[in-house]
């Protein structure tokens, strides 16, 4: 039985009720806030395992609440919104959102995103070997294996892979990956990233044309499984 608690910050009573029923049916404890100010207060008091945060709130914009929370809250935050344009999604992810779902969302997908986000919260930070089905990454030895066969990766390929793998399940924007791997000022060089993702897929995917590890989020970035 789950002992994880989730904070819902949403001003729509019917959405909060739907989420409450769905989450409690799946053994999560639920805390609710109808304003951004109340949400920040409850987050500080209860330190929930995950926050579901609506973009449009009556007192403050959800992006602003997200930025304020990220000053001290380091667990998962999934944004919920009727706004589904790429600019809004990219902004939320760059502001520190763990994930983003557009309303109306499918219950099964929401639960899967929550499970994945909480799983990442619970992973020990001291683990030096990351394992994803047929792929293993030894962070100390800097060795990547697929089905126990050592892969020859360039330094940049390795850096991209490790960044994605350490953020398993989280959508990383192109701009974020470029900044982290190539440095500040490279965020507009999306073609670099596409090239290295392509070469990485050829090396780590069983079928690069139908990748199962490096998943493209169209117009936004990539998610690693």
Instruction: Find the CATH superfamily of the largest domain.
Output: Response regulator
The figure for the number of domains is 2
What structural category arises from helix and sheet content? alpha/beta
First-residue to last-residue Cα separation: 25 Å
The CATH architecture of the largest domain can be given as 3-Layer(aba) Sandwich
Number of strands: 12
Shape: globular
Low-confidence stretches: none
Order of helices and strands: EHEHEHEHEHEEEEHEHHEE
What's the CATH topology label of the largest domain?
A: Rossmann fold
Radius of gyration: 18 Å
CATH class membership of the largest domain: Alpha Beta
What's the story with the biggest beta sheet? 5 strands, parallel
- Content of β-strand: 15-25%
Mean pLDDT, to the nearest integer, reads: 89
Main sheet: which strands, in order across?
2-1-3-4-5
Compile the SSE list and pairings.
Elements: E1 5-9, H1 13-25, E2 29-33, H2 36-46, E3 50-54, H3 62-69, E4 76-81, H4 86-94, E5 99-102, H5 107-122, E6 129-132, E7 135-138, E8 143-146, E9 149-150, H6 155-166, E10 171-173, H7 174-182, H8 190-204, E11 214-217, E12 221-224
Parallel strand pairs: 1-2, 1-3, 3-4, 4-5
Antiparallel strand pairs: 6-7, 7-8, 8-9, 10-12, 11-12
Helix pairs in contact: 2-3, 6-8
């Amino acid at each position: 039985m789950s002992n994880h608690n989730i904070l819902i910050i949403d001003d729509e009573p019917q959405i909060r009720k739907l989420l409450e029923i769905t989450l409690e049916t799946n053994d999560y404890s639920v805390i609710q806030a109808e304003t951004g100010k109340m949400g920040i207060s409850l987050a500080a008091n209860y330190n929930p395992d995950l926050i579901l945060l609506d973009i449009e709130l009556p007192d403050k914009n959800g992006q602003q609440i997200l930025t304020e929370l990220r000053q001290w809250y380091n667990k998962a935050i999934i944004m919920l919104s009727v706004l589904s344009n790429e600019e809004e999604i990219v902004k939320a992810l760059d502001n520190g959102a763990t994930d983003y779902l557009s309303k109306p969302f499918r219950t099964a997908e929401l639960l899967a995103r929550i499970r994945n986000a909480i799983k990442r919260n619970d992973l020990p930070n001291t683990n030096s070997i990351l394992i994803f089905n047929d792929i293993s990454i030894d962070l100390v030895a800097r060795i990547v294996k697929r089905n126990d066969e050592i892969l020859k990766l360039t330094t940049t390929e390795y850096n991209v892979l490790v960044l994605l793998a350490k953020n398993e399940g989280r959508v990383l924007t192109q701009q974020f990956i470029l900044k982290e791997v190539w440095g500040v000022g490279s965020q507009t060089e999306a073609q670099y990233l596409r090239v290295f993702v392509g070469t990485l897929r050829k090396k780590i995917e069983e079928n690069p044309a139908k990748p199962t590890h490096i998943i493209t989020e169209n117009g936004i970035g990539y998610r690693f499984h």
